[in-house]
Structure prediction request, 282 residues.
Amino acid sequence: MLLSAFAFALMSSCVKLVSTYGIPVFEIVAARAIVSVLISYTDVKRKKISLWGNNKILLISRGLAGTLALFCIYYALSTLPLAEATLLQYLHPVFTAILAIIFLREKIQLSTILCISCCLLGLLLIVGTGLDQSAEHALPLLSVAAAIVGALCSAVAYIMVKRLSTTEDSSVIIFYFPLIAFPIAATLLGSDFVMPSTEALFLLLFVGIFTQIGQVGLTKAMQTEEASKATAYSYIQVVFSITIGWLFFQESPSVWTLIGGSLIIAGAFINVFYNLKKKRLK
Prediction:
């Protein structure tokens, strides 16, 4: 999850940067899908397993949920500061934990409840102050809504990954995502295609590469840990994104963003330290 978080932070920064070249969101998604499907196809063939898996309906559903999440998240990344866009995405562990109770019958531990509580409070501080349109750090309402919908769709996708991990190889699960995303993105893009410059082309390539690394780390983590617990570790991406936004985009988060972000990180640490203590007791 730590490797996945770092890769996704780099992916997010590439998405934000390439959007400054006038590349539409649907084109970014399509470009990412092309890179990911080629890497995934090669990986599946290397393992000498079937491309199509066993539970095709659930694999396709996971691809659809992930694609919708991607559209929303990329739009938010291109229209919000990197720190705020990343933090808003992190409603998804809350949604994941709730969905895991309903559909996977998972038991939520006390550490996970504390983690979720801290994270929700932090997110409320960020969103609540950001929606004040008279404030210096006001956030676009549509972008905030897109980030939250993206977080919900991500949670749905994560739950499907957890269910699929009992019958499917991780490479097959990853392969279906870009396989579904590309035709949808290409269709919605239509005539709005923008020929990327050399710099934009390299950024689009890195979006796909960093995404693939992040997806592999995420899928492996979801196969070896409870869904609600595994996703909590990904909060370190917040730190990566705030740092990248400050270094490369000259974005200075508001005081409320920093306070809210600190609560989110505190929640993640509660989760980590509880696990360490539990292992020592064993």
Summary: The chain has one domain: 2-281. The chain has a mean pLDDT of 83.
